[in-house]
Every structure is written in structure tokens, then in C-alpha cells.
Write a structure and sequence with these properties.
The chain is globular and about 110 Å long. The two termini are 37 Å apart. About 3% of the residues have low confidence. 36% of the residues are buried. The strands form three sheets. Strands 1-3-2-12-11-10-4-9-8-5-7-6 form a twelve-stranded mixed sheet, sandwiched between helices. Strands 15-16-17-18-19 form a five-stranded mixed sheet, sandwiched between helices. A hairpin with a 2-residue loop joins β2 and β3. The longest helix has 22 residues. The protein is built from 24 helices and 19 strands. It has five domains: 60 residues, no CATH class; 264 residues, P-loop containing nucleotide triphosphate hydrolases (Rossmann fold); 83 residues; 35 residues, no CATH class; 142 residues, Restriction endonuclease-like alpha-beta roll fold. Keywords: ATP-binding, Helicase, Hydrolase, Membrane, Nucleotide-binding, Transmembrane, Transmembrane helix. GO terms for molecular function: helicase activity.
Length: 619
């Protein structure tokens, strides 16, 4: 139970403590030897034991002197009692040897699942615990979504982006616009005949034809004039009624930095502001979810007041938390357990809960364990919590305390973004294109390999304009020049991408930088493979490169990604045999049919598949 904990010590250690006790005993022995040898030995041994006991206890820090540490302070067990009060099982809280939690080690011992829920009412200590986790988790990059002006996330030392000053251009992703809309504006039961799917479909249809909110508004008005079908017209009217809340004349094209606090700060009209913020928060999360397996690896995502999005039933949060796996971490914070129930909470193997009240919340806890119900309802004080996601809650429940919470706070550092930075209004597309150092930007973008379409889209997202125009420039000039100079390489790939969770299969050319190990092509194929098997219901565990394991592991299968760029293809032979002994089948993934032939000849007993073949394969 206590393997992930260590009791806080002072600077002196065990050797020093034993040495000092030994010196005391030796001094006593020297003084008493002239009187009696036996007495000297016995007395010095007693003195050694007494001094050792005192110093041993003194080397540990008093709980009152510990600041901002998570301690294991008690456990609750079912104990059989047989006394005057009666006989039977009782739930007893017992103080245990206080231990300091190493949160990263704690999560590793729970199977490397780094998705954490933190649930607690106002003034319970929830926010302070989230601050502690943010500053303790090992991820280098951190993105924090903050919805309450009273929170101190902006003072944790990370740059802050105020979303009302930097409204993102949402029309780079019509599907994300549609999902964000129904998350921010849920359909009430009183709206006869109108469904979320109808509204979602209409928003997406309009967004696909729009370059900005002005276009969106005009197309919506034209559709309302021509539409006669009552349900569709009702859905369009619903969109029109809510449009002013999220409509903005000036928007910016930008990507979130690797580390930042995104502050969705409210003002006078709280209800309207919160719908505005929910819309743009959901949109940004949709965009981030696409990058979890590539540029957002090793990122901690923190979503405070997560129930603002999850209660709609349409948020990307459950899917995003499932995608993260071993690639990063996520913290979902909310006041009530019932607010996070469902897939979002199920994906959190660690579920820190402070004291809870209310039948709905306590019923959720009772469904896990009656012992949990007793602890969460009656046994927790301020700053005390338990992990209702722990194993074997029927045997014991550990109670933790955030001791003297005093997080490190810093001055707020604001991120400023303007139209000139984002190449928005004020410059023509031709002017923007002339200002671009294509070779430099291509090298930057190809840290994440991609095809012409992906690269054109990335240019359009950063600099504005149409992706197709950038694709023409890249195809005719920049990419051929870089290929001729052998600074980049290209490979034919039988590709699979998912659009609205439906596979889109087509052949494409993937560009990547030369000289990288692992190659950008390898990383691209790993991510595409993980995407395919995830949509087949298999949980992919992507392994770091260079550690002599398969590229992706799962419960029954392992996947070796072979790009065809290396000369020796026999290096995976031993790994195939190793996993076979474990009862796991190895599947080799190749980019195209040309590369497939040599692997089929080399490994006739192993499945060798392209991505489309993997999509069709029954696993």
C-alpha cells in the first residue's frame, strides 16, 4: 500500500543517526569500563538504543512543518468487532505512518494511465490540489483551461492567453465548429422536433461554405429565406438566435503555444459569456485532440470546471482523454462526481475525491464501493481526499491530505496576438505569400511529416488564405527544390485518415526531413496505425523509439512499423519471437505494396499489411 510513499526526512540520514548513537554508547562504555566491564557493555547498549530511538524519530519532519505536500494520513478498513456494542463488520479509520506521495511514481504504479479527475466542492481544497499536481507532474508542456477569475492558474508561472482578446478563427475546421456549437448551446426538450444532430448538421454545412462569421451570417440568412421544411427551419432559427453570442468581426489565426493558460474570463453578463467561452473552449480542444499523438506529445492538459463541457454529452473531452494514453496527461476538475460520470470519468484511472454530499453524487460512489461511500460522505475534512479509482476498495481505502498548501505563485505573463502576427485583415494573400520564407517554414512543419494537402492547410492556418494556393506554390517550386537538394525525402503511402470517424482511404505522398532518427515518415505511420486500431476498439500503447520494443503494443497484438528506408530488415526477427512467447501476434505495417513484397518474403509467417489492409483486417 505504501510503496509509492516515503516519509519526509531532514537532511541528516540513517548513517549519521546510527553513528551519533554509537558515539554516545562508546563514550559511556569508556567511562564505565574501569568500574565493571559487564556493566559497561549493558549500559552502553541501553544508551545506544535510547539515543538511536530519539534521533531516529527526530530526523523525520513534523507534519506541521511540511508545506504543499500530499501525505497518506489514514486508512479505512472493514474490521470485525465483537463487544458490548454488538458484533459485525465496522468501518474504522486508523492513522497510519505518514508518507509523502510522489505523484509520478503513484501514476506509474497504476499502469501508466495519467488521466486524473479531481472532484470537490468549493473550499474543499480542490483547486489547491490541482495547482500541486500541475507543478508536480513530469510533462514538459502544459495547457491549462481556466474558467473562473477567482482561480490562480494564471499565476503558476505559465504565459496566459485571454481568449476574449484573441478569438480564434474557427472556420479552419467546420466539424469542430459544429461540435462546439451543440456543446455551448444544448437542445432543450421543449424544442419540438429539433434534434442536436439536425443543428449540428446545419452548422457544419454553413461553416463549410464560410471563411468568416460574416459569411456564416449571410449564408444562414439566405437559407432561412428559402427553407420551407419546419424542422430544418426551426434548427436554422435556433442557430440564428444564438449566433450573436459567438459572432466576432475580428478573429485571429494562431496555434496555442506548447505551454500556456487559456483564460476564459467572465464579465458582467455571466450567462452569455459562459456560452461564448464554452464554444471557443470546445473548438480549441477539438483542435488539440488532433495533435495529441504528434506535436502535443508529453503535454499535460488541464480542464478546470470540466462539467461546463462534459454535461452537454457532445464534448470531445471523453474521446481526447482516451486518445492521450501514454503520450501525456490530463486533469479534469469539477465540483461534483455526478458531473463527470460516464466515459470522461471512466477514462480516469485516478479519481481524487474530496468530501461529497447530495444523493446523486453519493449514489455514484456507492456503486463503486460501500466503503468509499462512508469515507467520502463522513470521514473527510478540508484538504483531505481519497482516490475512488484505487484498486480493491472492498479491502481498504487510503485517505490523503494536502498538507499546508502553498503553491509557488508568480506574476502574470500575458500572451499578445494581433492581426499582423496572424496575417489576418490588412494584407492581401499575395502580400502574405511573398513575406513567407518557404524553406524555413517547410522545415519547421516537417517536424511532423505530411502530404501536400496537410502542408497547404498548415500554411493557410498560420498565414490565412486558401490552402489550395499554398499547395500549388509548394508543389511547383519549394518541394521539388528541397528534394533535389536532398534536404527532404518523399514516400508513397497507401493512407487511411478518419473524417467524422469514417475511414478515408487514398494513396498519397508523404514528405519528411532527411537525417532524422526516427524518420518523420516512421512517426507519421505510427500515428496513423494507432488511429486505425483505436477506431477498431483496440487501445494502442505507443512505445518510445530506441528501447528494443515493438512500436505499438496492445493486449493481443504488437505492431512493427517498417518504412522501407533501412537496408537491414532482419532486426525485428528476435522481437517477433519474443512477443510470440508472450502469446502476442506481431503485425508488420508498411507504407505501400512495393515495400510489402520484401517483408512478406522475409517473414512469411507474419502478417504484413498496409494501412488500408489494416483497416479491413478483422482483429
Amino acid at each position: 500500500m505504501m510503496e509509492a510513499f516515503s516519509r519526509p526526512r531532514r537532511k541528516h540520514g540513517r548513517v549519521a543517526v546510527v553513528s551519533v548513537a554509537g558515539l554516545f554508547a562508546l563514550l559511556v562504555a569508556i567511562l564505565l569500563i574501569p568500574v565493571s566491564l559487564v556493566g559497561a557493555v549493558i549500559t552502553s547498549w541501553i544508551i545506544f538504543c535510547i539515543v538511536l530511538s530519539i534521533l531516529w524519530r527526530a530526523q523525520f519532519v513534523s507534519p506541521q512543518k511540511i508545506q504543499n505536500e500530499i501525505l497518506a494520513i489514514a486508512d479505512v478498513k472493514l474490521t470485525w468487532h465483537e463487544d458490548e456494542s454488538g458484533r459485525g463488520w465496522q468501518k474504522d479509520r486508523e492513522t497510519i505512518y505518514e508518507g509523502k506521495m510522489d505523484i509520478n511514481e503513484y501514476l506509474e504504479r497504476k499502469g501508466h494511465n495519467r488521466i486524473i479527475a479531481v472532484m470537490g466542492a468549493s473550499r474543499s481544497g480542490k483547486s489547491q490540489l490541482v495547482y500541486k499536481l500541475i507543478q508536480s507532474l513530469s510533462e514538459e508542456k502544459k495547457i491549462i483551461f481556466m474558467f473562473k477569475a477567482t482561480d490562480d492558474y494564471t499565476r503558476l508561472g505559465y504565459p496566459t492567453l485571454y481568449i476574449h482578446k484573441a478569438v480564434p478563427n474557427v472556420f479552419i475546421s467546420p466539424e469542430a465548429v459544429a461540435r462546439a456549437f451543440i456543446t455551448a448551446f444544448p437542445i432543450s426538450a421543449s424544442m419540438q422536433g429539433i434534434t442536436a444532430s439536425t443543428v449540428r448538421g446545419q452548422v457544419k454545412q454553413i461553416a463549410e461554405k464560410s471563411k468568416n462569421w460574416q459569411d456564416f451570417k449571410k449564408i444562414l440568412e439566405d437559407m432561412l429565406k428559402s427553407e420551407s421544411e419546419s424542422i430544418t427551419k426551426g434548427a436554422l432559427k435556433f442557430i440564428q438566435n444564438n449566433l450573436p453570442i459567438i459572432y466576432r468581426e475580428n478573429v485571429l489565426n494562431y496555434e496555442l503555444p506548447n505551454t500556456c493558460v487559456v483564460d476564459f474570463e467572465g464579465s458582467e453578463n455571466t450567462e452569455v459569456d459562459m456560452q461564448f467561452f464554452k464554444f471557443y473552449a470546445e473548438f480549441l480542444l477539438n483542435q488539440l485532440s488532433k495533435e495529441v499523438w504528434n506535436k502535443r506529445q508529453n503535454t499535460l492538459f488541464v480542464i478546470d470546471e470540466a462539467h461546463l463541457l462534459t454535461k452537454s454529452g457532445f464534448s470531445i473531452i471523453p474521446e481526447m482523454s482516451a486518445l492521450i494514453g501514454a503520450k501525456g496527461s490530463m486533469i479534469l476538475a469539477s465540483q461534483r462526481i455526478a458531473d463527470l460520470r460516464g466515459q470522461a470519468l471512466d477514462n480516469c484511472k485516478t479519481q481524487f475525491s474530496f468530501k461529497q454530499s447530495g444523493k446523486e453524487n453519493l449514489d455514484e460512489v456507492s456503486a463503486i464501493s460501500d466503503l468509499f461511500h462512508q469515507v467520502v460522505a463522513q470521514m473527510l475534512s478540508t484538504y483531505e481526499f481519497t482516490d475512488i479509482g484505487q484498486d480493491r476498495p472492498d479491502q481498504y481505502v487510503i485517505i490523503y491530505r494536502l498538507q499546508n498548501p502553498k503553491p509557488k505563485l508568480y506574476s502574470v505573463k500575458e500572451i499578445t496576438i494581433n492581426n499582423n502576427d496572424s496575417k489576418g485583415k490588412g494584407s492581401s494573400e499575395e502580400e502574405r505569400k511573398e513575406d513567407i520564407d518557404y524553406q524555413k517554414v517547410i522545415f519547421e512543419f516537417l517536424s511532423q511529416a505530411g502530404n501536400i494537402q496537410d502542408l497547404g492547410k498548415r500554411f493557410a492556418e498560420r498565414y490565412g488564405g486558401e490552402g489550395e494556393n499554398y499547395r500549388l506554390t509548394l508543389y511547383r517550386k519549394t518541394l521539388p527544390m528541397l528534394l533535389k537538394l536532398e534536404k527532404i525525402d518523399v514516400k508513397e503511402v497507401n493512407n487511411v485518415k478518419f473524417v467524422n470517424d469514417k475511414p478515408d482511404i487514398k494513396d498519397t505522398k508523404i514528405y519528411f526531413r532527411n537525417g532524422e532518427n526516427p524518420s518523420g515518415l516512421h512517426t507519421y505511420l505510427v500515428n496513423r496505425t494507432a488511429d486505425v486500431i483505436y477506431h477498431k476498439g483496440i487501445n494502442p500503447k505507443i512505445q518510445p523509439s530506441g528501447i528494443s520494443t515493438a512500436d505499438i503494443e496492445s493486449d493481443k497484438y504488437v505492431f512493427e512499423i517498417e518504412t522501407g528506408l533501412k537496408n537491414d530488415i532482419s532486426d525485428i526477427k528476435d522481437r517477433i519471437a519474443y512477443y510470440q512467447k508472450q502469446g502476442k501476434e506481431t503485425i508488420i505495417i508498411v507504407p505501400n505494396q512495393s515495400e510489402k513484397k520484401k517483408y512478406v518474403e522475409k517473414y512469411p509467417d507474419v502478417k504484413v499489411l498496409t494501412l488500408p489492409e489494416l483497416q479491413e483486417e478483422k482483429l
